[in-house]
Fold this sequence. Notes:
Mean pLDDT of chain B: 86
Oligomer: heterodimer
Strand order of the largest sheet of chain A: 1-2
Largest interface: A-B, 106 and 118 residues
Strand content of chain B: under 5%
Order of helices and strands of chain A: HHHHHHHHHHHHEE
Low-confidence stretches of chain B: 79-90, 383-391
Helix content of chain B: over 70%
Shape of chain A: elongated
Largest sheet of chain B: 2 strands, antiparallel
Amino acid sequence: MNEIQRTIDYYQLLxxxxxxxxxxxxxxxxxxxxxxxxxxxxxxxxxxxxxxxQGYYESPGQALYLDAIMAQKNAAKQNGFxxxxxxxxxxYNEVKADGSKMHVTGYSEKASSILSKYSTLxxxxxxxxxxxxxxxxxxxxDTLRYNGSLDNIRKYHAVFQTLxxxxxxxxxTSYYRQHIGLEDDKYQMFISEVKTLLQKREPxxxxxxxxxxxxxxxxxxxxxxxxxxxxxxxxxxxxxKKSIYLVVAPSDNKGKYTFTSNQQEEY
Amino acid sequence: MDLAIKQTIQGYTAVFDSFTISDxxxxxxxxxxxxxxxxxxxxxxxxxxxxxxxxASGLQxxxxxxxxxxxxxPAVATQESTSQQEKPANSxxxxxxxxxxxxxxxxxxxxxxxxxxxxxxYENIFAVADRTxxxxxxxxxxxxxxLLWKIVTEDLLDIYQTILDATDPLxxxxxxxxxxxxxTISESTCQEELSYKTEVDVSINQxxxxxxxxxxxxxxxxxxxxxxxxxxxxxxxxxxxxxxxxLMVISQRATVKKTYEFIKEKYGWDFDYLVNxxxxxxxxxxxxxxxxxxxxxxxLDPQNIExxxxxxxxxxxxxxxxxxxxxxxxxxxxxxxLDQTARQALAIHEKVAQELNKDIVYxxxxxxxxxxxxxxxxxxxxxxxxKFSIS
Lengths: 267, 391
């Protein structure tokens, strides 16, 4: 079979590939055009000459670029990144209208800036959740954890406004919501409770009073029991150890962790 | 160099990153072009001066030619380069000679040790020389069998499969992340498909990872509050400011109750659920990564699970009064972390971990994998594990 026909066959392979994925429409178009061009040629020199004169030296590169931008735009749309999608679409339109704009800079910095903003918003929501959990596990007398977690919730809540949005908007957006591993109804409880916690700075009297009342009841029963209390302590100390292990992952997901290499220290 | 010139040069040269260029000769041509381009930039007073010098130097035409070559099929590119050199038609390279341009890249891959798929991909390319002597037939075989595309995908699979093989199989977020990436890479047939699917995968994987973290802090949180309660009891026994310490026992008992209710309400989990889930159970024991992939971790003694169970159910959640609790001996006591010998123990554990991991490819080639992962913008698991802790 002559080499021109085989060159046509070669471009058909590219056309078939790009047709199949549907994600490279510009390259598909260009290679169809090149294939048509080759069909009218009699030699490789003829191919090169016609490709050069008809702009097919530059167009595959531009087609590749446009397809790459479209892939990013479609991924941004799938991920719910509206602002990023709009940026890629604007970039696509700009280069489609004028191929030389491929070399104009600034767009990738804008894309990085938008992604950085998404990341900051995600981190803020995540930190609010972590501190919400910390608060729910904090002793009211432990000001570092209790008051500190409330302060952190306020601190990260403020991030949303600085980026032109709000906790309500971000927490309701599917992309961010999917980062928090709660069922929907429990997630709504978390959102609602955070809004209440924003106003709280320290434990309320009603939280601490029951402890003080219990202390008044219990201390009289224990104040003369030092010897007994410390004797219990000695019995427990005799049983305790300082002891750690290595935990080794199993070889598959049906297996169990292995605890090995026990290291101990006198207590 | 003027900033506007620098940014303009970056804009032009960044386009080369859009192509997968395997040909070392073309790579060398591009590198030479970039150096010459930068030299023109250095010798220009401002952007207007630069834009005048760019075409006048012949570099603009050179640029168009390089872009065209980077996007052309190999045989046509070869025709172009040979015609530019004004060689007669009968001095075209043979198929074998043409494919030899991939030898240098192959040798680099072979030297890495773990890149066995990529090695095979290159060997399949060289084997084409045994199948045809025609350059156009070579092109067709390369495209039909996706042999050049496989250089990209097989190399990525070498990285991801190696990491997956060394991942804790119970760490479902990491396992599903790498399994998905491997599937995407294996099924993609062109760069746009790989780009699109990878971008979507990365977003979903991030959601899964964060979602997992928001669940594993739960056993850590419960363990923390129970151990804190135990500590309050020990401090009370010292009889240093006993009323103050007793108040802490009382308040910490209430804190654990509140935490346990929070977990049951928000997640529907109780203590047995956490203990019976193999992945969750270890998070009750304060695990700390020992090797770089968190396949092996240091933990507190597993006896602490029974100690925590007793503290939680026999004391904290029970109807017993505090004085009764403090005057009753625990059956199962908490075992503590090491103190004086912590460093020596860590050294022993690191050595044991190294021995246990020695046959796993990931650990054999860890440093090379780090470099390859960074070059392909892949985040290795150990950078994620830094988020897996609560204090």
